[in-house]
Task: structure prediction
Amino acid sequence: MTTASKLKQTLAGLKGAQATLKEYAEKARHDEAKATFRGAHEVIGGIVQGLEGRVSRIEFEEPQFKG
Amino acid sequence: MPGWLDILLRSIGLFIVVFALTRAMGKKHPAKVTPFRFIIYTVLAAITALTMLNMVNPGVGLTALAVWFLLPFAGEYLATRSKWAHNLIYGRETVVIRQGKVLEENLRQARVNGEELLSELRSKNVFNLADVEFAVLEPTGDLNVLLKSEKTSVTPYDLGRQVAPRPEPQTVILDGNILNEQLAALGLNKHWIKEQLEGSGVLLDNVFIGQVDATGELYLDLFDDTLRNPKPQVKEMLFATLEKAQASLTTFSLETEDQEAKNMYSEYAGRLQEQLEQLKPHLLH
Result:
């Protein structure tokens, strides 16, 4: 497995987790839990964006990994 | 008026009067009252029975009933107004064990002997007198015990562990019926329940009890116990996914030779680790 595909796999996992966290933040019944889930959702959002940038750079530099 | 009709009317009338009186007397548990309150209950019961069976004149009976109801009521009112009246009416609590030592003088005043003290302690699951720091005999005769700090059960606070807040669960389905009031209190509606039931492949008619827990997840108990209803594992799965991503990021930071990317990966791994620690009490329990 190439680095690019491993990276994409991690990215997909994080995106799924981000969506679930968003759902939890909406339905949590206690403010503290809500804040924790929302905070985690934002941090992971930042990481997802950064990794997406990295993926497009790898694909630009080494087009053989594109896919 | 024939005798049976007389009794019938008296019974119904007194039933309603006494029912209203006991409701007005509040929610004190009959098994946990002061001896005097027990006497009040007994007297009220006796007057009611005598009046009903025409042993005493109805006028006399009702007057006695009113006195025995109104006096305690007045006493209760006074007790809420003044601490002195409260102590006079309800009695004071008696400290029977202080700093691990039995206060024999106080025990004697409360007319409790050592055997009774030990038996009361045992009923509180305390078999060893040496474990007790402090014990109070309440006016109702109940013994309340504070154990020595090393003998009390461990709380998350003692362990220095953070735990997620846990609001009370709400029962939203009972006997196959959706309880709309409880649902509305959660800000949910029937569509949400239908969606959840469809998701787990269960018919509403087959649900005995459905409860929504603190994180908003629906737990179902079915009539048909042979049906397997998998416990939701979404939270554990989410935590595992995040842990896996964190591990992968650490691996990437070690594998890559690009210094800029190395820094990025290790920074992200650190941030994710931080979030994992914060989420742990909410997702794993």
About this structure: Chain B touches chain A at residues 164-167, 186, 214-216, 234, 238, 241-242, 244-245, 248-249, 252, 255-256, 261, 264, 268, 271-272, 274-275, 278-279, 282 (CB under 8 Å). Chain B is about 55% helix and 15% strand. Chain B has four domains: 3-88, 94-151, 171-222, 234-283.
